[in-house]
């Protein structure tokens, strides 16, 4: 893919889209993105120079960067979420995730992307960030050994980013330049990857700060879904709740750090809170009616902050 590195003499805006993790709640993100796509009038790969995604955000981000419409992605989510989340253990969920990711992305690698991307995962053994990138200009040193996506397929990268252990299993990826790596969900280090994206733009692409524009989209803040059913599932739901709280802490930390380290860069953050009991949900939601409701809440969230978005992008 042609480099999009900006010359320090250019004043063209560099637009970044960052998508949080959150499992099934990614459907809320899609509600926001649908309204944005309609407002802009093009698929979002044509609007953003860099898309960063974590976990469910990596799935959405990858599909956007391939030129898919938001409606196409929503249709996939409505079909695939119940198939994955209805599996009752981490092995089953991971097996179904692999099956469906391979079906959706096939053997496509990072050269297929139409705009640049970062897919965030975590190296389980070293506890270091494992970020699958599309462009050599995103490399922070060691460019001589850079390979888009470490030579992995998009499917493998997305699975690595989504491996929210112990809700999902860990993911083993075979890279062409770093060997075999055991990966887990990127949300454990950057459920919101705004800071990583800004570091790429600032230090790697060397983009002028006054040309940077960032839209950061969460998966909504909902009350925890009430516990129901047989007592044997108590341990399972405790695991889900634990992972969600870790991801929430990661999100809060990275959002705060991004604002502290880059205070002069405009960042619009959309991640509204819904405390009403009828909106109670979690990252393994599989109920289609609830998923559709979250999608509509995403559209409502866009409406509440549309003026900020229009001001940010001048659209």
What is the topological layout?
Blueprint: E1 14-19, H1 26-40, E2 50-54, H2 56-65, H3 70-85, H4 90-105, E3 116-123, E4 129-133, H5 154-161, E5 171-174, E6 180-185, H6 187-190, H7 194-204, E7 212-217, E8 221-222, H8 234-261, E9 267-270, E10 273-274, H9 288-313
Parallel strand pairs: 1-2, 1-7, 2-3, 7-9, 8-10
Antiparallel strand pairs: 3-4, 3-6, 5-6
Helix pairs in contact: 1-3, 1-9, 3-4, 4-5
Distance between the termini: 27 Å
> What fraction of the residues are assigned to beta strands by DSSP?
15-25%
Instruction: Name the average pLDDT.
Output: 92
The radius of gyration over CA amounts to 18 Å
Low-pLDDT stretches are: 1-10
Specify the overall morphology.
Answer: globular
Run of helices and strands: EHEHHHEEHEEHHEEHEEH
Sheet with the most strands? 8 strands, mixed
* Portion in helices: 40-55%
- The helix-and-strand class reads alpha/beta
Total of helices: 9
Number of DSSP-assigned strands: 10
